[in-house]
Backbone:
């Protein structure tokens, strides 16, 4: 293909994309001359260039379209729905031909040549002002007599929106649709993003993605080289300035290259007005599309990767979420449903939400289905909360089409959505309220190329474990290994806060010979290690297990390098990376390891990430922070805990006999009934741990020697009277005293307002220990 | 492009073209045998480089090597030929690695040592003997009769880990 044709293809595709956006906008504002001019321009450009390049078919079609658009632009016709439908068909036909040109280098002497003719006739027909609506329906039938499949299931329409579409087939179902005033889809799009930007093209440049990828690679390489140079020159003062400069330039360069790969999500969002227009007509729904945050940017490759999951989600929303207009009206809702696409950045992630105000998912039906398909046990189902039950729709066994359609929830291929999103290091959450709607939330990392990872060691090698799947780390001292890891008929388990966690030994997994040797060596499968063991508690696709490794190194931001297909097919590595030390490390795929290690999905515990509100609600129930203060253990209601501080002993000051902390002018009284501070008094470099709590409208600190755990407390009853005991709780099977915050005496200060909890604490707090995340 | 045309020209020569052509081959040694690879296929030679082993990988995979920002899969010629592995000694073994370019991308070839570049004449080329054992007959592309002994030609395309992965199973 020559350069000219390639250029033409790219330009025409862009033109058509813009035309599609404008057409769906036009439905909303049929008299917007600017929109019309823009559409006209796109078609006109195609017509002009095709004549030049000799694509006759394209030229004819574009010409027919241009005539119609000319009338619209000059105000001799006004855009109604049949006209827009006709133009959209033209658009699909043009796209189809462009696609053929791209693949076969010629526009294809259409076997559907008469479809071209019919389309041209239709466009001509539409130029007659009054006749338009009537003749269209007749015409629609004529066209549909052709050798083409008629109204297909929604899938057809979905494809019509994507680039792989076959040349459009006029659909008789959509043709005799109601007049424009009653258009079922109204589009709400913010003005500035909805309007095409014309002038920007002067200051921009098209760059091949391959080149960008290469640049990204080289920058990664530069970062590594810089790391090594920094290490090598750290002792030589002559180089300090130079290497610092190198450091800065490298960081800037890396940022710029990453930025160059970023694209606004509107590139993906812009497909949806059309998809929703077509789908809602087909399904007889009335849907209003609201899009927010289209300017949010995401790495190009990630954007590609979420296109399909998003389309899936939107389709589900329309098909199963939003009800028929009469059903909605009967339920007292606006007959027109709202589908909202929202993108925003949150830290190092971009969140994309697809929410509808439809029927929501019936949790009871989900539970029933899950039981029917024995994805969970009845006992387990009874334990799961609503939110956890909802997550079941992501299980692969759950997503057979008819099961979900009948559930009036959704989930057709939801596991596919989740798999695709998790493949790029993202997460999917769902939230639904019966009768009020459903929100699907995709949490996507900002860039693919750089991932935070924990470096673990096994078999004398380093491996990288993506931090996204890691929920906590457990250290087992050599002398504890024998007792801490329990065996159930050859299956290793660990008791994590009272719950059994299946274990996978990384070294045995990676070296089957080793496993055989060890099994032969001791029939009871006793672990034989005399050195430390670490358990990385992982949560992959809802499967929770512990990966036992020999050692841990520091977490690193790793640059992900692809593996050759030979190594990818091993199945448990998702890539490789070069560590700061210059060593190579394989990146482990937690999901694949779970599969290989036989950690079952449905039957194992389905542990779901709790939302922040849920955490608070649960905590409020009866969660406690278990601490050790001197010789005793004590429980502090987690709800009251604000944060945990580790401070040097030297910062403790005294008012009279009472220890206090001075936080930038604010005094925090410290309760030290256990004498923790007193016992460290001799050692000025020691650190003490202070749990900062809220009590009424003041804050108090409690000095403790260790923070042990977070757990749910059980109620205790007084023998005989069956009165609930106060001041104590059952935590990890031990009766534990609850710290009574109210008993802590106020400081001898005139006004307590200093401790008003609303007062600003600018001190950077250490995060709370994770509550089963 | 030039790489492939050279490969083709060797093929053509094998079928008995008239005028002898001089070709440049990089010689490598594995075990007792001297092997040759057309230098047009070689991107770089990494001397005494470390290859990171990959647990669970097929046997012919020597490991991973870092090359200009990319992580390349390496093929162990020793393993391929069924010779006792020098790399069995542990993860920290060092090798000479040839970085080769093939249709499927770049990969590394682990060899015992890399020798000099030899100029050979197409007139000295002989196709594989019919008695050559199965796998070797695929990997080898005949031999050049040199005064000091035979230079066994390797076909870089056949050494591509993707192709080996497909045929190994």
Residues:
């Amino acid at each position: 293909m020559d350069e000219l044709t390639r250029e033409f293809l790219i330009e025409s595709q862009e033109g058509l994309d813009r035309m599609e956006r404008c057409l769906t906008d036009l439905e909303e504002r049929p008299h917007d001359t600017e929109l019309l001019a823009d559409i006209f321009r796109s078609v006109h450009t195609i017509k002009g260039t095709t004549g030049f390049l000799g694509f006759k078919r394209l030229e004819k079609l574009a010409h027919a379209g241009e005539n119609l658009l000319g009338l619209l632009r000059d105000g001799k016709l006004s855009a109604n729905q049949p006209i827009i439908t006709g133009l959209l068909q033209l658009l699909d036909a043009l796209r189809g031909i462009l696609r053929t040109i791209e693949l076969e280098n010629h526009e294809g002497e259409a076997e559907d040549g008469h479809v071209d003719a019919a389309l041209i006739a239709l466009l001509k027909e539409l130029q007659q002002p009054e006749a338009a609506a009537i003749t269209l329906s007749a015409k629609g039938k004529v066209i549909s007599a052709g050798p083409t499949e008629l109204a297909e299931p929604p899938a057809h329409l979905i494809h019509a929106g994507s680039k792989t579409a076959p040349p459009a087939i006029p659909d008789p179902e959509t043709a005799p649709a109601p007049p424009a005033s009653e258009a079922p889809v109204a589009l709400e799009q913010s003005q500035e993003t909805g309007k095409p930007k014309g002038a920007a093209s002067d200051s921009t440049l098209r760059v091949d993605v391959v080149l960008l990828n290469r640049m990204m690679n080289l920058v990664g390489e530069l970062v590594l080289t810089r790391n090594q140079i920094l290490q090598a020159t750290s002792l030589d003062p002559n180089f300090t300035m130079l290497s610092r400069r190198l450091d800065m330039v490298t960081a800037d360069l890396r940022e710029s290259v990453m930025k160059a790969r970023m694209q606004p999500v509107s590139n993906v969002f812009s497909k949806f007005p059309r998809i929703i227009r077509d789908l809602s007509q087909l399904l007889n729904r009335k849907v209003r599309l609201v899009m927010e945050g289209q300017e949010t940017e995401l790495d190009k490759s990630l954007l590609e990767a979420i296109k399909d999951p998003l389309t899936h989600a939107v389709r589900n929303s329309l098909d199963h979420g939003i009800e028929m207009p009469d059903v909605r009206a009967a339920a007292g809702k606006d007959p027109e449903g709202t589908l909202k696409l929202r993108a925003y950045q949150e830290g190092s992630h971009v969140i994309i939400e697809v929410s509808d105000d439809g029927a929501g998912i019936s949790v009871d039906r989900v539970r029933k289905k899950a039981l029917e398909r024995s994805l969970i046990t009845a006992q387990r189902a009874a334990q799961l909360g609503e939110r956890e039950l909802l997550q079941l729709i992501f299980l692969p066994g759950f997503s057979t089409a008819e099961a979900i359609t009948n559930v009036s929830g959704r989930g057709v291929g939801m596991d596919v959505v989740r798999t695709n999103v998790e493949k790029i290091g993202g997460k999917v959450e769902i939230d639904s309220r019966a009768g009020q709607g459903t929100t699907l939330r995709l949490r996507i990392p900002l860039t693919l190329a750089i991932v935070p990872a924990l470096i673990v060691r096994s078999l004398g090698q380093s491996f990288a474990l993506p931090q996204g799947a890691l929920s906590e780390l457990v250290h087992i001292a050599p002398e504890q290994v024998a007792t801490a890891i329990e065996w159930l008929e050859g299956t290793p388990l660990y008791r994590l806060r009272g719950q059994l966690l299946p274990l996978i030994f990384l070294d045995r997994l990676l070296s089957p010979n080793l496993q055989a040797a060890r099994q032969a060596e001791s029939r009871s499968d006793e672990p034989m290690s005399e050195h430390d063991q670490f358990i990385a508690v992982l949560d992959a696709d809802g499967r929770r297990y512990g990966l036992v490794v020999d050692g841990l190194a520091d977490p690193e931001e790793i640059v992900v390098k692809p593996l050759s297909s030979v190594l990818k097919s091993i199945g448990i590595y998702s890539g490789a990376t070069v560590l700061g030390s210059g060593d190579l490390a394989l990146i482990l795929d937690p999901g694949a390891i779970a599969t290989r290690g036989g950690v079952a999905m449905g039957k194992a515990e389905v542990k779901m990430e709790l939302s922040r509100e849920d955490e608070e609600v649960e905590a409020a129930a009866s969660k406690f922070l278990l601490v050790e203060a001197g010789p005793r253990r004590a429980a502090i209601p987690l709800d009251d805990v604000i944060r945990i501080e580790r401070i040097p002993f030297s910062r403790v000051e005294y008012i009279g006999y009472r220890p206090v902390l001075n936080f930038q002018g604010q005094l925090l009284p410290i309760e030290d009934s256990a004498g923790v501070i007193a016992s460290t008094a001799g050692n000025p470099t020691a650190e003490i741990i202070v749990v900062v709590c809220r009590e009424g409208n003041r804050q108090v600190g409690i000095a403790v020697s260790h923070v042990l755990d977070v757990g749910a407390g059980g109620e205790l009853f007084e023998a005989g009277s069956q009165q609930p005991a106060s001041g104590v709780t059952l935590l990890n099977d031990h009766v534990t005293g609850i710290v009574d915050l109210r008993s802590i005496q106020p400081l001898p200060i005139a006004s307590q307002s200093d401790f008003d909890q609303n007062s600003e604490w600018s001190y950077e707090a250490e995060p709370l220990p994770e509550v089963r995340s | 492009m030039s790489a492939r045309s050279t490969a083709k020209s060797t093929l053509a020569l094998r079928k008995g073209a008239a005028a002898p052509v001089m070709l440049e081959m990089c010689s490598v040694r594995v075990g007792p045998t001297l092997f040759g690879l057309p230098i047009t296929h070689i991107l770089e030679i990494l001397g005494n480089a470390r290859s990171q082993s990959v647990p669970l990988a097929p046997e012919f995979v020597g490991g991973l090597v870092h090359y200009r920002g990319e992580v390349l899969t390496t093929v162990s010629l020793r393993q391929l030929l069924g010779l006792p592995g020098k790399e069995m000694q542990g993860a920290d073994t060092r090798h000479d690695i040839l970085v080769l370019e093939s249709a499927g991308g770049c990969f590394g070839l682990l060899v015992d040592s890399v020798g000099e570049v030899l100029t050979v004449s197409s007139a000295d080329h002989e196709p594989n003997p019919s008695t050559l054992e199965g796998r070797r007959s695929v990997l080898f592309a005949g031999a050049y009769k040199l005064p000091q002994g035979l230079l066994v030609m390797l076909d870089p395309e056949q050494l591509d880990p993707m192709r080996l992965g497909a045929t190994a199973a």
Remarks:
- Chain B touches chain A through 26 residues (CB under 8 Å).
